[in-house]
Design goal:
InterPro entries: LanC, LANC-like. Helix content is 51%, strand content 3%. It is mostly helical.
């Protein structure tokens, strides 16, 4: 099935120079891990490394990704723009190829990171609340840190990012109703599509993609890799403690609200009512894998075991699994399968491994019988390339680092 999905993405689409550049242009998505050529190149590069695909596919998709004007502006991050293309090159190409472009992109990403660190430090010094885009995985400093941990783990810049994340976990004396009673990642930004009056006083976002679970994953994976800064263990404990405090219990096990508003914090309970879709981006799978990574980083077997048990109960619940739609790594079957596979490789008990055949079989079955529009999206994070990549990874039992863009390993 991995081969079938990859073969369907063998050739990139033709582009018309007259279409120009911009968010509505097909060429704009070239530099995207989520929907575009940079992510699809990773699929073919990983397959080529195991002799299951040709390198010409990698070159074709990378050529499409690199032909456009590469973004290094405010919207650029790990999933889009210069960092996305740099990450793709680091995973997809053979050693020695693309060195000139890689060096140029590394310099751009380093400059972006320094600029954003400077802005974040100034924001914290003035006791202002952050926007999620400052620290999140998709386009913030966590995503840039994930790239740096892969490209330059012994450099100074990754440690500056980790130091920033440590500071992010500390309360700030902001001049708003929450004041210093909430952690430093508390934001006043209203989530897209949500009513403004429901988020008066701000909120804590708990997702992997845009919330505090992403920074926790980077702090934990860095510590496991031996990349540490002062206060890192305390910061990991602080985030874990927050998630422990706001964990809810349901018939199918623990769950966490996607977000917690100031009103809900004062009441001591979320109004969400039950678990969200079991996704990587906001559901229990992403959060439990991160808590497992935290347990591994801290050598806390109790925390690790609790996280594994929570994940197992989630992926064994037919009700939650019925909410999954499509193949995506972000919020579909590929994501819950990928999280479960990497978690099972580190698990203390074999129960998660025992669940893998069902999850993998379900993903394959979905690919066979669902011709819906969600199965025609080509991207890595939001399309069929991601489904192909996790199926390839499981079938070959190889992990090449592509999963760092999700911070699940």
């Amino acid at each position: 099935m991995a081969a079938q999905l990859a073969d369907a993405l063998a050739e990139p689409p033709m582009t018309d120079p007259a279409e120009g550049y911009g968010p509505d242009s097909p060429r704009w998505n070239g530099q995207s891990l989520s929907e575009g050529a940079a992510g699809i190149a990773i699929l073919h590069g990983v397959r080529a490394q195991t002799g299951l695909s040709g390198w010409e596919r990698v070159r074709d998709w990378l050529s499409l990704a690199a032909e456009e004007e590469v973004s290094a502006g405010p919207g650029a991050g790990l999933w889009h723009g210069a960092p996305a293309l740099a990450f793709s090159l680091s995973v997809a190409v053979r050693p020695g190829e693309g060195d000139q472009l890689t060096k140029r992109l590394d310099a751009v990403v380093a400059s972006m990171t320094r600029s954003r660190l400077h802005a974040a430090e100034a924001r914290m010094a003035s006791a202002q609340r952050p926007e999620p885009g400052e620290f999140d995985l998709v386009r913030g400093l966590t995503g840039l840190g994930a790239f740096l941990l892969r490209r330059d783990p012994h450099g100074d810049l990754i440690r500056r990012v980790l130091t920033y994340l440590v500071r992010l976990t500390k309360p700030i004396p902001a001049d708003d109703p929450a004041g210093d009673s909430v952690p430093g990642w508390w934001t006043l930004q209203v989530p897209t599509g949500k009513p403004k009056d429901g988020f008066l006083g701000g909120h804590s976002d708990h997702g992997m993609a845009h919330g505090i679970t992403g920074p926790l994953a980077l702090l934990a994976t860095s510590k496991r890799a031996g990349v540490t800064v002062d206060g890192q263990t305390t910061a990991i404990d602080r985030i874990c403690g927050w998630l422990d405090t706001h964990q809810e219990e349901g018939p199918a096990g623990p769950w966490w609200p996607e977000r917690l508003t100031h009103t809900e914090l004062q009441k001591g309970r979320s109004s969400q009512g039950g678990p969200a879709r079991p996704s990587w981006c906001y559901g229990a799978p992403g959060i439990t894998r991160t808590l497992q990574l935290a347990g591994l980083a801290l050598h806390d077997r109790t925390r690790q075991r609790k996280a594994e048990e929570a994940l197992l109960r989630c992926v064994a619940d037919p009700v939650q699994l019925s909410w999954l739609e499509g193949p995506s790594l972000c919020h579909g079957w590929a994501g819950v399968t990928a999280v479960s596979w990497f978690a099972a490789m580190d698990a203390l008990t074999p129960a998660l491994r025992d669940r893998l055949p069902f999850l993998v079989g379900s993903l394959i079955e979905q690919a066979r019988r669902k011709p819906s529009s969600s199965w025609t999206k080509p991207g890595l994070v939001d399309g069929t390339a991601g489904a192909a990549l996790i199926l390839h990874t499981i079938a070959t039992r190889t992990a090449t680092g592509w999963e760092r863009n999700l911070l699940i390993n």
